[in-house]
TrEMBL record:
<keyword id="KW-0444">Lipid biosynthesis</keyword>
<dbReference type="GO" id="GO:0046872">
    <property type="term" value="F:metal ion binding"/>
</dbReference>
<dbReference type="InterPro" id="IPR016064">
    <property type="entry name" value="NAD/diacylglycerol_kinase_sf"/>
</dbReference>
<keyword id="KW-0418">Kinase</keyword>
<keyword id="KW-0547">Nucleotide-binding</keyword>
<keyword id="KW-0460">Magnesium</keyword>
<dbReference type="InterPro" id="IPR001206">
    <property type="entry name" value="Diacylglycerol_kinase_cat_dom"/>
</dbReference>
<dbReference type="Pfam" id="PF00781">
    <property type="entry name" value="DAGK_cat"/>
</dbReference>
<dbReference type="GO" id="GO:0004143">
    <property type="term" value="F:ATP-dependent diacylglycerol kinase activity"/>
</dbReference>
<feature type="domain" description="DAGKc">
    <location>
        <begin position="1"/>
        <end position="135"/>
    </location>
</feature>
<dbReference type="GO" id="GO:0008654">
    <property type="term" value="P:phospholipid biosynthetic process"/>
</dbReference>
<dbReference type="Pfam" id="PF19279">
    <property type="entry name" value="YegS_C"/>
</dbReference>
<keyword id="KW-0479">Metal-binding</keyword>
<keyword id="KW-0808">Transferase</keyword>
<protein>
    <submittedName>
        <fullName>Diacylglycerol kinase</fullName>
    </submittedName>
</protein>
<keyword id="KW-0443">Lipid metabolism</keyword>
<dbReference type="InterPro" id="IPR017438">
    <property type="entry name" value="ATP-NAD_kinase_N"/>
</dbReference>
Amino acid sequence: MTSEITLFVNPTAGRGRGAHAAQPAAFALRAAGFSVRTVLGENAEDALKRAREAVEGGTGALIAVGGDGMANLALQAVAGTRTPLGLVAAGTGNDFARALGLPVRDPAAAGRLIAESLKGARLRDIDLGRVNGTWFATVLASGFDSRVNDRGNRMRWPVGRFKYDLAMIAELAALRPLPYRITLDGGEVREIGATLVAVGNGSSYGGGMRICADADLEDGLFDVTVVGECSRTTLLKVFPRVYRGTHLDHPVVTVHRAAKVELLAEGVTAYADGEPLGPLPLTAECVPAAVRVAIP
C-alpha cells in the first residue's frame, strides 16, 4: 500500500469540530510515516468528486474527518473498491465510528489507531446497505423517526440538536400508525400498521440509539426493527430503552432479518446515516464485504 493517503475533511462538522480535528489527526498520521493530502471541496458534490479522484488516483486510504454525514459521503467514493476507509469521528452522532470501535472526538487517538491499522494491514471488510446506488453504513430510518428529521430540517430556529427535540414533541402530538407493506428477500410480505421501521446494517443511529441492537456488520443481513401500532404513552415508555437496546423484547417491537428489504408507505421519507434518501417506496439490499475499513 502506498504511504500517500487522503484526509477527507468536513470543516463544519460538529459546529466546527471537523476543522479542529483534522490537524491532530494529520499530525498522528504523518508521525507514523504517511504523506497526507487534505481534500475539502466547495460543497458536498465537489468534495465527493475530489474524493473519487483521489481513490481513482490510487490513494492508500481515504480518511473521513467529521460526522456520520461525512462518513456517508466518503462511502460513496470507496465502496466497491479496495481502498481502505478510516474514520476520525468529529460530528454529533458518530454512530459508524462507534460501530467500528473507533474513538469519538479524540482525533489524535483516532489518527494513531488508523495509522497502526494501515501499517499492520489490520483491515476489515464489512457489509453496506445500498438503495438505488447510494450506500449506507448504519441504519435506514422510516416512519416516526424520519418524520422528526423532516420536521427538524424545516425548522430555522432553534439551531443544533434542540430543534429535533422540539420536532419530536410535535410529532408525538400528531402520532398515528402508518400502513406499511414490507417485503423481505422478495418473498415474505407483511402488511402492517407501524410507528416506524428501521433497517439496520449497523446497530445505532442518532448518537447511540441502538434501534437495531443486534445488527452485525459482517453477517450479510439487515436487522429490520418494526415498532408496531402504539400509543404516545407506550412510545414514551419504550423510547428510553432504545439507548440500551432492551426495547427489542417489548411486545410492540418485532425484528426480522433479510438481505433485501422493500418498504412501501405513503408520505414517508427515508433517511440513511442521517442523510435523506427520498420518499418510499424503496428497496434496500445488503452488500457483503462492500468496503474495507481501518479498525483498532
